[in-house]
Design brief:
Elements (H helix, E strand, L loop, with lengths): L1 E4 L9 E4 L2 E11 L2 E9 L11 E3 L5 E13 L4 E11 H14 L5 E2 L2 E5 L16 E6 L4 H5 L6 E5 L2 E2 L3 H11 L5 E10 L2 E10 L1 E2 L4
Antiparallel strand pairs: 1-2, 1-5, 3-4, 4-7, 5-6, 6-7, 8-15, 9-10, 10-11, 11-12, 11-13, 13-14
Amino acid sequence: MIAIGNALALPGDPTVTVDVVSALGRSIESTPGVTSYDLIQTDTSINPGNSGGPLIDLDGNLAGINTAVLQGTGGRTSIDVEGIGFAINVETAQQVAQQLVELGRVRWAWMGVFLADLVPEVAPEVGLPIREGVIIQNTVVDGPFGRAGIIPGDIVVKIAGQDIATVSDFTRLLKQEFSAGQQVEVEVFRVVDGDGSRKTLTLELGERPQQ
């Protein structure tokens, strides 16, 4: 992969660095309280000025848009980080560009929930018969999920018939497949008094509030 940008606003030509893709579908807290999902992880040198530049494959195709880097010492583990870069994938970038041209703003579908992955190793310890899904930690007051009757503790296993194993699956599907105002069916696993059952609820997607 090749990353192009204007690193540190250095005079002259753009900065070009070469990297490899380390992982796909990464999630990071890009700013306090804001998590970015479904990112491409690379080992490129991304510095101030690189964000917004293209990440290109060796055939010259756009793969993503450089957006963030983890480096230095910090985080919950205080481990030294050697410049791990992240890029928005090209599908998300194209969607954003199209909406900006057509609407003048980005209009994301929104469900109004706070999520966490169901950890497969933990599920049997708490008596859950399923190993994959997304746990509803909380719902936004008067949000689409709350209005549909989905409650904290429910585990989302399918949306519109498609399996949901992780928060990245959930977010990717929401961004790439659905639009605000669309009706979708959500299948959840719910435990009541020790008994678990699957429920299918229909909801109307909202529009994500502008940040």
